[in-house]
Design a protein that fits this description.
Elements (H helix, E strand, L loop, with lengths): L1 H19 L3 H24 L9 H19 L3 H23 L5 H19 L10 E2 L12 H25 L1 H11 L1 H6 L4 H20 L2 H5 L1 E2 L1 H4 L3 H13 L5 H20 L5 H15 L3 H11 L2
Antiparallel strand pairs: 1-2
Length: about 300
C-alpha cells in the first residue's frame, strides 16, 4: 500500500511540475534521468535477479524506438499504442534471443548480447523505409491539455513508465519467480536439481526485461524529433543501465532506481557545467568507486550500516 501511495505522489508531483514550470531544458534533462531509471530497473530483472549480465540494452531500446517511429510514420498511432507495441516487439526479441543464447553462461552470454546489438543496428541501417543510415525526421503532434509542450507531456509519460517498471520488478522480486531467479543466480545446477524451472524463468526474465527496455525507447523519436541507427543503438545505453543497477544495488528493486537517479543526475550536471564528452568518464569513475567502496551498491551499504548500529 505504501508503494502505491508513494507512486501516486511521485506521478502527481511530476504532473504538477510539468504544468507549472516553463523551462523546457528541465524536462529534457529530467526525461533522460527517468528513462535510465526504467532501463536500469529492466536490466536488473535479468542481470541482477538472474545473474545474466546483459550488454544488449541498445538492441531492445533501439527496436522499441524504431517500432514507435515506424508506427507513427505509417499509421500516426498515438503514443500509448506506440509504447505498447514497442513492449511487445522488444519482448518477443528478448524471448527469441533467450531461446538462442540462454544456454550460454558468463562471458559467452555477454558477448552474444553485444552481437545482438550489432545485428539490430545493421538491419535498421539497411531498412530504407525507416530512414536507413541517414535517419528519419519526425514532426511531433500537438501536446494534450494541460501540458504546455510535447516534451513536458513525455516527461510525465516517462514518470508513469518508471512506476510501471518498478512495480513489475517489485512483484517479480517478491514472488516465486524472484525466488527462482535468485536460486539460479546463486547456483543454476543446484536450482535445476531442486526442481526450479530455470530455462522457463530465464526466458521470462529476458522477455520482460527486453520488453521494458523497448517501452522506454518508444518515446525517444518524439523526444528528439529524429531517429537514426548510430545513436539509437549506442552502447552507452548498455553502460548506463548496467551502471545504474550496480551502483544502486542489484539485490533490491529500489537499487536500480537510486543508482540511475544518482548517475544520470550527475551526468546531466556535468553536461551543462563541463562537457558532454565527460559523461562516460563520470559513469566509469563512479562505477569503479562503488565497486571498490560499496560492492553491494547503495542499498547494500545502508543495510550494512544499519545492521552495525
Amino acid at each position: 500500500m505504501r508503494f502505491w501511495i508513494a507512486s501516486a505522489v511521485f506521478v502527481g508531483l511530476a504532473s504538477a511540475v510539468a504544468v507549472f514550470i516553463s523551462n523546457e531544458y528541465v524536462f529534457f534533462a529530467a526525461y533522460t534521468v527517468l528513462m535510465y531509471m526504467v532501463l536500469a530497473t529492466a536490466w536488473n530483472i535479468l542481470g541482477g535477479y538472474a545473474g545474466y549480465v546483459n550488454f544488449g540494452t541498445p538492441a531492445f531500446f533501439g527496436l522499441g524506438a524504431y517500432t514507435g517511429a515506424v508506427l507513427y510514420k505509417a499509421f500516426a498511432l498515438p503514443l500509448p499504442l506506440q509504447i505498447a507495441a514497442a513492449f511487445v516487439m522488444s519482448g518477443l526479441l528478448g524471448l527469441f534471443a533467450g531461446i538462442l543464447t540462454l544456454r550460454l553462461r558468463g562471458i559467452f552470454f555477454a558477448i552474444a548480447t553485444i552481437a545482438l546489438v550489432v545485428i539490430m543496428e545493421t538491419l535498421f541501417i539497411n531498412w530504407r523505409y525507416a530512414g536507413g543510415a541517414t535517419g528519419l525526421q519526425l514532426l511531433r503532434p500537438a501536446p494534450l491539455w494541460p501540458f504546455q509542450s510535447y516534451i513536458t507531456m513525455l516527461f510525465v509519460v516517462m514518470a508513469l513508465m518508471v512506476v510501471g517498471s518498478v512495480a513489475v520488478a517489485r512483484y517479480i522480486e517478491r514472488s516465486w519467480i524472484g525466488r527462482g531467479l535468485r536460486a539460479l543466480r546463486d547456483s543454476e545446477d543446484a536450482a535445476e536439481c531442486s526442481g526450479v524451472p530455470t530455462l522457463k524463468l530465464k526466458l521470462f526474465a529476458c522477455a520482460v526485461s527486453g520488453g521494458l527496455m523497448g517501452a522506454a525507447g518508444a518515446p525517444m523519436p518524439m523526444y528528439l524529433s529524429f531517429i537514426e541507427p548510430a545513436s539509437t543503438f549506442n552502447l552507452n545505453y548498455a553502460v548506463g543501465a548496467l551502471a545504474g543497477a550496480m551502483v544502486g544495488g542489484t539485490s533490491h528493486w529500489l537499487g536500480p532506481v537510486l543508482g540511475a537517479l544518482l548517475l544520470s543526475s550527475v551526468q546531466q550536471i556535468v553536461t551543462v557545467t563541463i562537457s558532454n564528452e565527460i559523461n562516460v568518464l563520470v559513469v566509469g569513475i563512479l562505477l569503479v568507486f562503488f565497486v571498490v567502496a560499496a560492492p553491494d551498491g547503495i542499498i547494500g551499504f545502508f543495510r550494512k550500516w544499519l545492521s552495525s548500529k
